Automatic annotation (TrEMBL):
GO terms for molecular function: lyase activity. Residues 50-293 form the Alginate lyase domain. It is found in: Periplasm. This is Alginate lyase. InterPro entries: Alginate_lyase_dom (IPR008397), Chondroitin_lyas (IPR008929), Hepar_II_III_C (IPR012480). Keywords: Lyase, Periplasm, Signal. It comes from Algoriphagus winogradskyi. Residues 375-644 form the Heparinase II/III-like C-terminal domain. It comes from the Bacteria.
Amino acid sequence: MTRTQLFLLALSFCTSFCFAQQKIPSAESKLLLTSKGVKDYRFLAAKYPKAVQQIEEMKAKVEAEMAEPINVPIPKDAGGGFTHEKHKSNQLSIFQAGVLYKLTGEEKYAKHSKVLLTAYAKMYKTLPLHPEKKEQTPGKLFWQSLNDAVWLVYTVQGFDAIKSYLTPEERDYLKTELFEPYVEFLSVDGAETFNKIHNHGTWALAAVGMTGYSLEVDEWVQMALKGTAADGSGGFIAQLDQLFSPDGYYTEGPYYQRYALLPFVVFGQAIATNNPELKIFEHRNAILTKAIYTAIDLTYAGHFFPINDALKEKNLKTSEMVFGVDIAYSITKDPSLLSIAEYQQNFAPIDGGFSVAAAVAAGLTKPYDFKSIRVRDGNDGTEGGLAIFRAESYTNSSALIYKYTAQGMGHGHFDKLTWLYYDNNSEIIRDYGAARFLNIEAKYGGHYLAENNTWAKQSIAHNTVVVDEKSHFGGKLSTAEKAFPTELIFDVSDPDYQIASAEIEGVYEGVKFTRTMIYLRDEAFEYPVVLDLFEIESNEAHQYDLPIHFNGQFIHLNVPLQANSTQMSPLGKANGYQHLWNMAQGKAHDKLSQFTWLLDNRFYTWSTKTSAEDELIVTELGANDPDFNLRNERSIILRSTGHGNHYFLSALETHGDFDSKNEVTMNASNQIQALELTVKDGKKSIVVTTKDSGIKNYEIN
């Protein structure tokens, strides 16, 4: 026998022997639904059946799916297309059917989950990359590997729930034909994404780590914890250390904090169950639970602040937040989290979810305290932050959001020192968010639209100063990531006078920005008032534009405008200006320009100190938009030119009531008559002259 023949024989023997020696996954549940959750469910079903009504609804959904032929199509379509949506619905069907088997013991549910899993096992090894693959991170079942990872996070939980139903041979078959090649695709073939400190990496490592726990493959678990190099440069611990600030703020912003929470918390729970010695929920001063609380705090009326790339429809009722709240409650037993669960009207079908359902049924709920806070940005908390000012004693309370965060990686916008304002359950001073129609195939396959770069990310799309019609940092991510604001003041010790101030250099060459925002309550005003001082230091001559993206119906401007009523032109040629129709323009007031609009039943007046050389421009979004991708929103822009230092001093008042049903209008006129900035002994003050209460002096500490 030749040496080659001996080698091949040895290799064949080793391969067969090693395969035979591989550990077949046990029938024991290793993930988020265990015997404790089953016991809690059965207690609730017997004593408080309404508390688990959603399980009955889940049964009806899954049984309707069971009545239809199994459909596991060859991947073909991009986001929103038939095959994309079918694989998404199959992942939930595998998960939910597994849960129902675990809760009820009825084998029909386990059989359905098994048939689907087996169908995927038969096709997976032969799948090429998705035909509509995204350039950077193509998947197999889906157009991007992110969706593949999400599929596995849900699917392995379904598998874990039916392991006791499967024979050892069936468990081994699914392991070798589906889960092993799937894990290899995500972690080895997709190592760059798997090790990336980014939400795509979080989903991938959570999928691999949870699969490792369920199938009892420690190598996969260790990769998920430490990265493929096993040195901690990637993996779950590195993600926890680098993506969150000490206050639990996720660097990409609230929208992606919500999205990334699910893999963080479900894998965290799996780690806590299987490796309690790691004390994962105590890591970094309990950063995971902090992140859940912070995500809740980054909302108004249940909806997330739409800063950076964000879709405004997302709220606390999303599945990610349901899992997050339930797991947080299972750890903290904080009854205020139950009020969020009641708002969600849902719970996750896991141990933590049944704990929440039991606590709500027992009447343990307390209100969540939405208070004024600042959350720092940067993994060490030194890269600016987000100030959230609230006045909860008011009916339909308001909230001022002052954003002075770092860039937020690729999903960040070029909008240093910007702000939003909410009142009466509405967004009053708004942020566009992202230009995207998620999973609507007709709109660029559900991708971010070209207008996300040409409009939504540009500085003029935000409520901040734009210099010489150019976006902050020239619209370059690599430049923007090197700079971040420095917080100068944050003080909410007096609920009637809350203040934050921050500065940044490098937004434009030779220009420094400092913005101070004050949220005050005063007997002179019917509702809280926002004071805004934006200071610019420069030795050169510049054009300064300060846009206000308002939400509501134009009521009054105290200076005449020349309307472009027969023909409109774009306001500019680039940097977002090309998307703004110049609807009207005119000279500003020589002392104080005032603009009033109406939204629902309240009036809002923006007062800003101006000179007769300044200009006011009314714009509407929609120019150079041949595919009608952009919303037709309006703004008013204050334009000033000058040499050397400059400042904008403004105020926003809420006032009055408009009762259209009874045709009654009250307090349609605002209080402020003058605004001045004074400096004495190095201390700055904003002096406000009001109609009924005289002069008010507000010192900037």
